[in-house]
Design goal:
It is a single chain. With 307 residues, this protein is mostly helical. 73% of the residues lie in helices and 0% in strands. The chain has eleven helices and no strands. α10 runs antiparallel to α11. The model has no long low-confidence stretch (mean pLDDT 83).
Length: 307
């Protein structure tokens, strides 16, 4: 009887191992489909766009002649819009998450806010564009400007930053708080000196995800009036005379890399499609560079943490 029971247990374990192997194989195949599809598309973009990557491509404005067209206004506009987005979204998102997780009272109002923030993370980007059109462009009078675009994308990634920051704070062991309180630290000292430093790597991950989403968005910036053809640059943020800093560029017209790519792909000439592929390659490099910087900062923060 004992031998029969042992054999049944072995058979059961063997069947489970076969199912484990089956699902592992299906998972690897599904992963390879996605990876191979990405690799084929990316290699095609590299083959089409790499011959156009020259210095003139970065220093020329868009042109009706494909061989003379460049992305100067597009990459400058993307950089400035991302700067406004980061300045607006990161401090507000982190502060909101800290308040909700550490200071907000546990009542129905807080529950409603938390549910809405979670739901906003899945709202289509075009909805944010329509909201920004009525709020920033017309109500606040910012116009079709870099400031409007940056604030729009900041609203878009704000829920992502808030949710990621809250999850990072929740992952901090309760012993950290209890130890700080036992030594006489206040609520703010515990938060500023312990909770935020220990959760910083996770916060940086959320920021990476949000900024990577924002840099490739097209629908919101089109909705608020980004230009598809622009042959000028915004005013310089820094001037030679006092007060040296200028904010005129915030209210300047702009375009961004995804819109420039859309403009070129809508043209029938194959040369413009190659330009779009080259612009896409530059956009991928910009995204990877931004992510690499954030990952390096996250690595340094983790290295300096002493548990």
């Amino acid at each position: 009887m004992l031998k029969q029971d042992l054999q049944e247990i072995r058979d059961l374990i063997q069947r489970h191992k076969r199912w484990d192997l089956f699902f592992a194989t299906v998972g690897v195949l599904a992963l390879m489909v996605g990876v191979l599809t990405f690799m084929v598309l990316f290699l095609g973009m590299v083959m089409d766009g790499l011959p156009r990557i020259r210095l003139e491509f970065f220093t020329n404005f868009p042109s009706r002649r494909a061989e003379h067209a460049g992305i100067l206004s597009a990459w400058v506009g993307t950089t400035l819009v991302m700067l406004v987005t980061a300045v607006a979204a990161i401090p507000v998102g982190v502060a909101a998450a800290v308040y909700l997780e550490e200071y907000a009272p546990r009542n129905w109002i807080t529950d409603v806010i938390e549910i809405n923030i979670t739901n906003l993370a899945g709202v289509p980007s075009i909805v944010y564009g329509l909201l920004a059109l009525g709020l920033f462009v017309y109500t606040f009078g910012f116009g079709q400007s870099i400031l409007s675009a940056g604030l729009t994308l900041a609203l878009l990634i704000l829920p992502v930053v808030v949710v990621a920051t809250r999850e990072s704070i929740r992952a901090i062991p309760g012993a950290i708080r209890e130890g700080a309180y036992a030594l006489g630290a206040t609520k703010w000292q515990t938060t500023a000196d312990h909770i935020l430093p220990y959760s910083a790597p996770g916060i940086m991950t959320g920021i990476i995800i949000g900024m990577a989403r924002a840099i490739g968005e097209t629908a919101p910036v089109i909705t608020i009036g980004a230009l598809t053809f622009i042959a000028f640059l915004p005013p310089a943020p820094v001037k030679a005379e006092a007060p040296f800093l200028s904010f005129e560029w915030l209210f300047s017209g702009f375009t961004v890399m995804p819109i420039q790519m859309f403009n070129w792909t809508s043209r029938p000439e194959a040369a413009f499609h190659n330009n779009a592929a080259a612009a896409g390659l530059v956009l991928v490099v910009m995204t990877l560079s931004m992510n690499a910087l954030a990952i390096w900062i996250r690595y340094r923060l983790r290295k300096n943490i002493k548990w």
